[in-house]
Design goal:
alpha/beta; 2 domains; three-stranded mixed beta sheet; 12% strand; globular
Length: 306
């Protein structure tokens, strides 16, 4: 793991090794759990401290790995990850049998999970956004895999993602990271320039005093569920490319920009092991946007076609 900075192993290999270590920590006996947890966390912080400061030229795999390490280096996130692993591994052991499966958690942005039954084992890869699964849903997750009820599994996770805003925010976080930095501040789209949208929004809603995010960019692809995202660790703001259309009113772009800049202004609050971005305070500020109601109405009506 310590050699990742020199890229002597692939990001995929590095993530696999870290998953093995985290799974071992999560399965540690209760009397050893605290010691193993702190030891693994210290290693993650050490890896983070040795990540390259300049990420230009790194592949998307390495960008995702680096972002994942930074995310895990937050104690709240690390604790959530281990609690989730402990729950899920326990139920998978009960349903599938010890050594009959492999579990890897990744910050993939393109898929929520992958289940591959192979001779003698089931290979399971899941997105970090599933960390918020309840004890009950972890049990159902394992049962559906054992029973090979793939439609039920897909339906359960779709419902989970729909009802869990933290999951959607985490998916959007890693999706924004995956954008190659060479596309960093290329703000100009076909119809809108995000640089102009930012300046207008800052002047209109923040008195011209909102610091510009380090990177502002369009999403690599059209996204029908997420209009934008703000990566607080990287100070990166992304706007859905689907909004770069002639039939999208300027006030919609202004509102989406305002929404993401509020994340920059207000930060993320913690509640126990949960990170909460859309707090009551956030929602109250959001409603102060001059075009809040008609922008929301436009997005709700047109999201699927954008």
């Amino acid at each position: 793991m310590a050699e990742e900075k020199q890229q002597t192993i692939s990001a995929g290999q590095a993530m696999t090794e870290l998953n093995v270590l985290l799974n071992g920590t999560a399965l540690a006996p209760n009397y050893m759990l605290e010691q193993e947890t702190e030891k693994t966390y210290d290693l993650i912080v050490h890896i983070m401290d040795n990540l390259p400061a300049d990420e230009d030229g790194l592949s998307n795999y390495y960008l995702l790995f680096n972002a994942w390490i930074r995310w895990l280096a937050d104690w709240q996130n690390y604790s959530l990850n281990l609690l989730h692993r402990r729950r899920l591994l326990g139920h998978l052991n009960q349903q599938l049998g010890i050594n009959k499966f492999s579990l890897e958690i990744y910050p993939y942005s393109s898929k929520l999970y992958s289940i591959k039954p192979v001779p003698g084992k089931t290979e399971i890869q899941i997105h970090e956004a599933l960390d918020y699964l309840s004890e009950y849903d972890c049990k159902r997750f394992a049962q559906f895999i054992r029973q090979r009820k793939w439609t039920d599994l897909k339906r359960m996770l779709a419902e989970y993602q729909e009802k869990t805003p933290q999951s959607r925010e985490l998916s959007a976080h890693f999706q924004s990271v995956k954008a190659n930095p060479t596309h960093g501040n290329q703000t100009r789209g076909r119809y809108y320039d995000l640089e102009e949208v930012f300046r207008a929004c800052s002047q209109r809603c923040f008195g011209g005093k909102m610091p510009r995010p380090k990177v502002i960019h369009w999403s690599p692809r059209v996204n029908h569920s997420t209009m934008g995202s703000y990566n607080i660790q990287e100070d990166t703001l992304m706007i859905n490319r689907g909004l770069d259309r002639s039939d999208v009113p300027a006030y919609v772009l202004d509102f989406v920009m305002y929404h993401e800049l509020l994340h920059k202004a207000l930060g993320v609050k913690t509640s126990g092991a949960r990170r909460v971005a859309h707090t009551k305070e956030f929602r109250d500020f959001e409603k102060r946007h001059p075009d809040y109601e008609r922008a929301q109405a436009f997005i709700q009506k047109n999201a699927k076609r954008l």
